[in-house]
Amino acid sequence: MNRIKETLARIARAARGTRDPASSSSLRLDRVGRSSSSTLDSREKILIRPDGRGPLILFDGTQHGDDGIDIVFVHGLFGQRSGTWTKAGVCFPRDFLGQDIPGVRIIVWGWTGALSTGGTFSEQAENLLADIARIRTATKRPIIFVGHGLGGLVVKEALVTAAMSRIYGAHVELGNVYPKTIGCVFLGTPHVRGGKRSLGECIATTALLSPTPPTPQLLKAFRDSDKAFENLHSTFIMISRDIRIICAREKLPTTINASADVVKDADGMELGRGTIQMMVPRDCATYEGFNVSKLDVMVTHQDLARCKSRDDPGYAQIVQYLVKAATALTPAEMQAREPRNQEILNTLYFDSMTERESRIDPAYGDTCDWILNPNQSPLPKFLRSNDTVLWISGTAGSGKSTLMKHLWRSEQFREQLLDGWGRGGDLHMACFFMFEGGGPIQKSYEGFQRSVLYQILSVRRDLIRVAFPSFFDCPWPPPVQFTSNRNLNQAFYSIFAQLSDNLRLFIFMDGLDEYRIIDRKDQYEPGELDVTYKNAGDEFWGQSKWAMDSHVEISKLVNSMSGKDNIKFIISSRELSVFEEAFSEFPRIKLQEHTERSITQYVAGRLEDEAPGLPDTNNLCKELAQKSHGDILWARLAIDMVVGCSLRSLRGMLDSLPSHLGGPDGLYMRMLQNLSHEHQNSASKIFHIVLRAQQPLSLITLAFAEEGYLDPGTGELRMIRDDERSYDNDAVDRLADEMQQRLQTCCVGLLVAETGIATNSNTVETGKRVVFSNQTAKEWVRRKDIWQKLPGVKPIDDIELDFSLLSGFARHIKVFGVTRSPVLAWPSWRIRPDAWLLISNVMRYAERIDNKINDLQKYCALLDEVDNTCQRIWVTALKNHKPLHEDPDWYESKLPSLLKKHWSSYEPMDIGKPPKRKDFLTLAVQASLVRYVDVKLNRLSGEAKRKKAQELLPFVVSPKADGISACAALSGDYSEFHHDMPDSRLLDILFEAGASPRDDERVWSKALKAGRNYFSRGSVTMTHLLETSSSARLMENRERWVTAIKALLQHGADPNTDIQVTTGEGESQSTTTIAAVDLIRETLEGEPEYAVELVEMEVLMGRRGSVGLAR
């Protein structure tokens, strides 16, 4: 947010053609003894400016209008506007490019200036933007920037500034540079940190390659500005996805003309004048990206920017790139994009996207019409104003969601919007109804982004390429997670940066208090997730630190988006103090101040329909409305109870009703107290199972889980007893219907089964999941004090709940095949994604109780039965398969081969191949089922036990971290089994059983390479972990990897073994050989928290440890 504010301030300065007064005290970038003059405004003067600053047109082969392309060259630190690009009298942009690329205008731009107080090249970027905007006033032709050395950083800063001006609607004349930019060529520009060097250090190193040596003060300033440069690159990645990038790097060293007090290497060693060894650090001169090409050129740093012949290294490749970047798509190519458009939309979509809205009751009659009346509501004025956010606040149960749904579907609302703020623009509307009681994606930032993007792009399919340009030139599914927050963020940036001239987006965000930080939940301690209660206001319903932090985050998100003048929001939430503070400047409607009349209308209508002829209904309606205190939910539940009374008992019932919903003496409690003791116990168990579940349960899973895992009559596992009865479609339907009936009778309507229909046959059926009817119900049920007031209710242990959930999912697997095949044959053999999700839930609940369960025999027997069931399902599906076309090899070779395989090797994947698993025990290792693995190994003896332990060892020390499961799209909190290091206690079990790294040298090699998944910035796995969970999960993986390496060394792994390590991809891929001891040091150096462990491993490897290892 601070970066955005600073950027907008700079845009304003650039548009005025003025400088920040503070810059006068900034560190100068000029050579010693030189000075800079101020920017001139006249185009004529700019073109002939004697100091070499500003733009100069070297060649113009364009015609009048927008045809052709502008190529802008920006020299590096202390370079020259023309001289940087000239060698032996040949200025290659003018003398070669002008002839080799038709319709091109060549512009060179010169700069000096000051390093900003923020530590970046912001002032130079402002001047570049202002100059290029002025020189392009009569054209909209595309632009390609070419930046040499640190000139590339000036280009990046300028494009970020221009993009921000587009996104936030400030000084569009400068922002217009950004959407016309189609390519960037970076010649020896540092982008990211390299090895042990920070990005600031890499930039300082690049500065040493300048024609004139920089001062020690300037080098220090570059190093100290590391964070600012990191932020610049992160933002540039976000706004440059539809810009073709080429990163060229020199392969020959440059002679340094600097004194020893200036030149030092990354370790602080003085290099001395004339040292011939300096290049831009290899790792920092390029970065990963779909639209990023890499080019190594056999020249020095200075010669990257100049050539005297078309045959010089690198020239032909750069020309080829420039021509490709400037080439427009043909209509046929546009049509070819349509299948990819649909693939992207399918991936953005999730089944529960509209579930919350569909479950909200529509407005009763005209009870919500007041909101669009200018005499009763500030909303019509808001729709005509430049205000960006309207906050609808209300107490729990006041009808906020109903009102939001009414507005979202109102044609009158849309008409008023089009007559006001939306007039003359390309208006799009989107909504997101947050739902804390639903799955993780329904209350997360990812869910919000995917929902809004889907709603926009499904209408404007032409914008899909604008939002996700990098995904049109890659395989599908892509090699990275498409729905990561980073990628979705970039899509929003791209849309608004490209289309801010006329795009108007109106967003409804309902239930901000139900938003949760899903991707960082595991950073919180159990006590920080526990709910505490207050006796006043909406805090009465309970709060936790996790929830409060979530409210702070969503408040900041709303405030950050409110700065865009082409987006308008209506948000709704409870009246929590965090929102009161964050939204104090926004227009506001306090809903409970407007609902008494609506409640009176609602009660009157219900009484007329359901209790006609009731005397004195007018007073009864007013009395109920007043007693509700604006709580529509209370009024609905109260009228349900009243209409069932006789006339004689009606007055007594009305007088006895509590005036509030929650707490140990509210209306909810009265409803529960009216149940029999048997139904109260059933309600307690059902409620606590639903609360304990990691995600909403289906009716079938809940029905099985409620029965418990043991048959009370025989003491046998219910899953095994299920073999004695056969389930068909009718039996499964009856099971679901009976569970739904129990939700009504035992749970007094506070739990409901969703009514939505799944749109994807390969995903979970949303129409069968059980959720709380509203947020207040969930908040009330999880209070411990209410169950303590019901003496007949037995307390339920968490382990029993988890075992019941484990049994429920396991039994659901058995009956899954009744309604659909659990195995898919096309396009490849695999378990159906929603069937695998059941299996993964079995493993996750098993992990919860593995270390706590007392009945170890029953626990292991249940998991064995899961394995046997899945293998039977696999074999049956294979035997029942009939090829669509004649395939003589199916019965002779393919079928026999598949029958020998274990079902666990056919996990459904969105990206990559499924992990190869020989048996269920391998999956148990990956799921960290320590006690189960121990029991199974101890049932073996002798060589069989040792062999099995050896077979499992690679899965403990080196997860197969490739690919992303198809279940990731079904569940917002799905965790891959094969991305994480398993529990370190498994190492002791396997070594005790006879496993040894000396028996298979590949184990040691794989384990060492696995460290790159968790310590390398370029690791796809590390990126995936950070984007799908939190740094806590990454740190756990790091700790387990270090433990595994130490354990392997202690059990005989050879530290002197040579390891082949492959880096890069495609043409940039290379393989090097490195000793194990050096690979360990390379992995852990620069990680201060593992300095002690590294010393300990150095001792194990026969090297003397040093306490100064972590730099």
Question: Low-confidence parts, pLDDT < 50 over ≥5 residues?
Answer: 14-48, 265-273, 536-540, 757-767, 1018-1029, 1104-1111
> How many helices does DSSP assign?
47
Give me the CATH superfamily of the domain at 2-17 and 53-326.
Answer: Alpha/Beta hydrolase fold, catalytic domain
Q: What portion of the residues fall into strands of 2 or more residues? A: 5-15%
For the biggest sheet, the summary is:
7 strands, mixed
Q: Find the CATH topology of the domain at 2-17 and 53-326.
A: Rossmann fold
With strands numbered from the N-terminus, the spatial order across the biggest sheet is 2-6-3-8-9-10-13
- Using the alpha-carbon principal axes, give the shape: globular
Radius of gyration: 33 Å
